[in-house]
User: Which sequence fits this backbone?
């Protein structure tokens, strides 16, 4: 038995689509909360499977978790630093944030290798190098990492790649370390600012988040606090793209437009008509067919790798040859094989795809091979003739908050079904 999402294509979308709290911020904020010595309330928590899995990990650690609407109250007052060798750790990538959080708080962590979407190799060597620079010993045996330190001390750490995960993990490991930690070539994604904001509200001393040099001055105690998560820029971008494909005046709300400027300026270059407000983006019905465009993924503020897959679905409808190059994950092109099944004309190269358009898409049985591939197929399904049946929807539910409900509310025809 498995759940599928069926989308009947060809229906225009209209009205408002509200963006949920950021998945990639939430999955770091939840582990960060255990660094406090009192209850942390996080609001704007999206209803996604990654949050359920992180809550399950919190419960293994004897952390009290209370859910109320979109609030999560995380109380680590009675927590125990047990070994995280449960399979739930392998269900998502972000479980690796418990490495930094538990190392920072207890000087010891033993946990399984994290999982997550397969996008090609996803090493964590930079996280490990950061922990080692802070004074930790790292060992890997029988599928588990053991990371321990008698004494964590500040250090100067240069990241060879501006990694989001390594930046956040090192920040968390350094909050209680003695002295000053400087992370150079730090990643600048908005989620990093959100985590630094939470840590500072708890009493940490983190400066420079959002720039490429972050300084952490160690403190001795962190308290509980209240924090509202930033809107999800990738969900917002996904909605803007699907509205550009099939919308008749769709207003996307709870957006920080600055966070997706690389996308909105690309869509405007393609001919989309966008009205960008303070915290909303309206996508007007396209009068003319969109033009082809080239896009290369880069770390923030460049074009996000997480939006190249959704954008590819729209590019199948643009006039001319579009090119997508992914410099972050060279193998993140499985969605192109699924789009080809639906009639798209795509040539896949080494880290690139050439998309010829416009082509008619036809509904078919397709598979969400990873989260953003799923988003791409949802958009393709809205465009296509007939019904698209998307399999392995658990990938979509890991990161999109009830996407089928949000589509239906905007006039889309999407339903879930359980099949044998
Ligand atoms: N990298 C290394 N060594 C490391 C860490 C990263 O070589 O120790 C490489 C990666 O292989 C990749 C690049 O550095 O080529 C950037 O990876 P990064 O560490 O920034 O990615 P991440 O932290 O694992 C987060 C998001 C991803 C998003 C990337 C890039 C979370 C939980 N995940 O992953 O989100 O694609 O940043 O922006 O925040 C998604 O939401 O669909 C998703 C995959």
Assistant:
């Amino acid at each position: 038995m498995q759940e599928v999402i069926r989308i009947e294509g060809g229906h225009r979308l209209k009205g408002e689509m509200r963006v949920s709290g950021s998945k990639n911020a939430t999955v770091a904020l939840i582990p960060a909360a255990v660094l406090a010595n009192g209850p942390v309330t996080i609001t704007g928590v999206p209803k996604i499977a990654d949050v359920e899995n992180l809550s399950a990990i919190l419960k293994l650690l004897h952390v009290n978790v209370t859910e109320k609407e979109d609030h999560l109250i995380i109380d680590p007052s009675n927590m125990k630093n047990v070994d995280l060798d449960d399979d739930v750790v392998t269900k998502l990538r972000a479980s690796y944030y418990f490495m930094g959080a538990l190392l920072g708080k207890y000087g010891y962590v033993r946990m399984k290798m994290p999982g997550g979407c397969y996008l090609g190799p996803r090493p964590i060597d930079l996280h490990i190098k950061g922990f080692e620079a802070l004074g930790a010993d790292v060992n890997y045996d029988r599928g588990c990492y053991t990371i321990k330190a008698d004494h964590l001390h500040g250090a100067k750490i240069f990241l060879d790649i501006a990694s989001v995960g390594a930046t956040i993990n090192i920040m968390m490991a350094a909050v209680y370390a003695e002295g000053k930690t400087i992370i150079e070539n730090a990643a600048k994604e908005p989620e990093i600012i959100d985590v630094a904001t939470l840590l500072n509200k708890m009493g940490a001393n983190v400066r420079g988040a959002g720039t490429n040099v972050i300084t952490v001055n160690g403190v001795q105690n962190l308290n509980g606090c209240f924090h509202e998560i930033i809107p999800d820029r990738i969900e917002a971008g996904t909605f803007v793209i699907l509205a550009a494909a099939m919308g008749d005046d769709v207003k996307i709300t709870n957006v920080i437009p600055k966070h997706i400027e690389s996308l909105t300026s690309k869509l405007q270059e393609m001919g989309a008509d966008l009205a960008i407000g303070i915290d909303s983006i309206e996508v007007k019905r396209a009068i003319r067919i969109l033009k082809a465009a080239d896009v290369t993924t880069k770390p923030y503020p460049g074009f996000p790798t997480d939006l190249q897959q959704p954008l590819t679905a729209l590019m199948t409808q643009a006039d001319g040859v579009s090119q997508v190059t992914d410099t972050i994950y060279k193998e993140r092109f499985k969605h192109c094989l699924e789009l080809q099944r639906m009639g798209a004309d795509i040539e896949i190269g080494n880290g690139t795809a050439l998309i010829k358009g416009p082509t008619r898409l036809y509904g078919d049985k397709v598979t969400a091979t990873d989260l953003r591939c799923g988003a791409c197929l949802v958009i393709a399904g809205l465009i296509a003739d007939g019904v698209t049946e998307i399999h392995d929807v658990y990938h979509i539910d890991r990161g999109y908050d009830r996407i089928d409900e949000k589509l239906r509310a905007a006039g889309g025809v999407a339903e879930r079904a359980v099949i044998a």
Remarks:
- The mean pLDDT is 96.
- The first strand starts at residue 2 and ends at 8.
- The radius of gyration is 21 Å.
- Residues 24, 27, 93-94, 117, 122-127, 161, 163-166, 187, 234, 304-306, 328-329, 371-372, 399 surround EPU (CB under 6 Å).
